[in-house]
Protein: ABC-2 type transport system ATP-binding protein
Amino acid sequence: MTLTLDHITKTFGETTAVRDLSLEIPEGEIFGMLGANGAGKTTTFRMIIGLLEATEGEVYWNGGRMTYAGSGMIGYLPEERGLYPKLTVRDQLVYLGRLRGMKKADIVKQLEGWLARFQVPDYMDQKVEELSKGNQQKIQFISAVIHQPKLLILDEPFSGLDPVNVELLKQAVLDVKKMGTSIVFSSHRMEHVEELCEHVCILQHGQPIVHGSLKEIKRSYGRKNLRIHAD
Ligand code: ATP
Structure:
């Protein structure tokens, strides 16, 4: 199940957020999308999941056009966090899992597994608003993977997290990859993609300035030029 972006462009009035972006993301790979603020990463992700329609070009998934209806196979962790603060972790996940057609028992089983993996097994009945930012991010991550998606889109998953939580989430991303899920994630920081990704794309002002395997890019451009900027 390859994800293909075929010459996609998105304009908002006078602003071109993404310009003529073509990419192929092979099945089962972790793909990194790098770029500074406003480079067009979130807009690209919204086109992939079908939340925004491309002004030009198409997104293909598994050979067919990506539609919003087909996006049930996708997990999405948005940049602006979207949890329900007054719900308990269990209620939050049961609600989201049910929306994706899961049975309650399966949701709870998956959730228990993830909470144990994240070393917070007793968070089941905590209200989301009572959790630290790092722990809310873990719950947001679980929300994106609870239905075992074939494609996982993570918009700045490590942003604002302390190093311990960054490591826990990185390990979780690798665990999801082992299940055969294709993963695309964005970051401002080269060191995040270096450890996780085989291929990367660097966006600047809505245009792909570089894309290819990390090895090729490092050889051609040198590590120094690959620094985007710090968070
Ligand atoms: P960040 O790291 O800050 O999230 P980004 O790389 O995700 O940045 P986008 O959010 O995709 O970048 O924004 C790309 C450009 O498109 C920016 O100039 C932004 O202001 C503009 N843009 C994004 N969404 C809209 C919108 N709905 N209406 C108008 N302009 C928009």
